[in-house]
Design brief:
With 366 residues, the protein is of the alpha/beta class. The protein is built from nine helices and 14 strands. The chain folds into two domains: 175 residues, FAD/NAD(P)-binding domain; 178 residues, no CATH class.
Length: 366
């Protein structure tokens, strides 16, 4: 069979495309099906109990299962429309076909994923959960087999890696097996949370309470020429919540999530600065970016108290490099601990964020 590794959006649609074309497909997912995964994630958010194989990042649907369900494509790929049509066939609202900023919502997306899984099986695709690829066998510079959970050998000469950005253990294994890879730039920053009513007022003005207007969104950017950095908002979640999405013990990672109605009290967004390869790269070490990222995620874990609470700070105090130890209300679970966020960020990222946020405040005061 063609083996597809990972059941996030890329893996699901790779498997679907192959299956509808009549090929034999095996879809391997290290985590659990979405029904069980939801319970595991709730236990993590409420009690700080992390399952390294079933969490916000690993499991059926990938990280997007616990997100806003945005359908964003910054390319003009002709298949984007087809993807939306398939999602509608699987139960997504038809509005995603025409909405300029289409989104499904994490609550509805879970149902869509179940329908897609059932469709894959109808097409003959074998879907295997709790199936971590622990090794690959390469002969004559070609893949010959895949090892699952350290014991199951699957012979194949065709595999699609759709493992996402957080499968550090898999990337290390591939590197050890001689798979060519290189470091790439990325972005790093904070999650910012405001009352949704404040964002509505900023964006809609005197019409902010109009019943037919959706919760307001924003996207802002800043070019910091003196630091040669760019700062921008990303993955803005109106009426949503900030969530913990750690996958490995001892690290803090945050993300944003909204349900389909986007009717939560808070709005949140990532505010990030670009990180170039030369900021972290070690010679002949393509995985140095993973080590760099892990360093700061582990510092955030320690600053949060070591129990998956997140370090938090009032935005104005972060910008002014002050700390009162007082944090306002937040949607984050299992909770937050007051900390200086500059201590859990590279200095060049913190400096760029401060300048960028000041520029944002001129566009959107508050």
């Amino acid at each position: 069979p063609v083996v597809v590794i990972g059941s996030g959006p890329a893996g699901l649609f790779a498997a679907y495309t192959l299956a509808v074309s009549g090929l034999s497909v095996l879809l391997l997912e290290r985590g659990r099906p979405v029904e069980k995964r939801v319970a595991d994630v709730r236990a993590f958010w409420k009690e700080g109990v992390l399952d390294p194989q079933s969490n916000v990042l690993f499991g059926e649907g990938g990280a997007g299962t616990f997100s806003d369900g945005k359908l964003t494509s910054r390319t003009k790929n002709p298949y984007a429309g087809w993807v939306k049509k398939v999602l509608v066939e699987m139960g997504s609202p038809e509005a995603i076909l025409t909405d300029a900023k289409a989104h499904i919502g994490t609550d509805k997306l879970r149902e869509v994923i179940i329908h897609l899984r059932n469709k894959l099986r109808e097409l003959g695709c074998v879907v295997q959960f709790e199936a971590l690829v622990t090794d690959i066998i390469i002969r004559h510079n070609e893949i010959a087999a895949i090892i699952v959970n350290g014991r199951q050998e699957i012979k194949t000469d065709k595999a699609i890696l759709a493992i996402g950005q957080s499968a550090d253990d898999t990337y290390r294994m591939l590197h050890e097996r001689g798979v060519k890879m290189e470091a790439k730039p990325f972005a790093m920053g904070l999650r910012v949370e405001h009352p949704q009513s404040l964002i509505n007022s900023m964006q809609y003005g005197r019409w902010s309470k109009h019943p037919h207007l959706p919760p307001a969104e924003y996207f802002v950017t800043a070019a910091i020429s003196k630091l040669n950095r760019s700062v921008y908002t990303f993955c803005m979640c109106p009426g949503g919540q900030v969530i913990g999405c750690s996958a490995f013990p001892g690290f803090i990672i945050t993300n944003g999530m909204s349900n389909s109605e986007r009717n939560g009290e808070f709005a949140n967004s990532a505010v990030v600065a670009n990180v170039r390869v030369e900021d972290f790269a070690l010679e002949n070490e393509p995985l140095s970016g993973l080590a760099f990222r892990s360093l700061w995620e582990s510092r955030a874990f320690e600053a949060g108290g070591g129990n998956y609470c997140a370090p938090a700070q009032q935005l104005s105090e972060f910008v002014e490099n002050k700390s009162s130890g007082v944090v306002g209300r937040t949607s984050f679970l299992p909770g937050v601990k007051a900390a200086k966020l500059a201590d859990v960020l590279p200095e060049f990222v913190a400096d760029a964020l401060r300048v960028g946020i000041k520029q944002f405040d001129k566009k959107m005061p508050g």
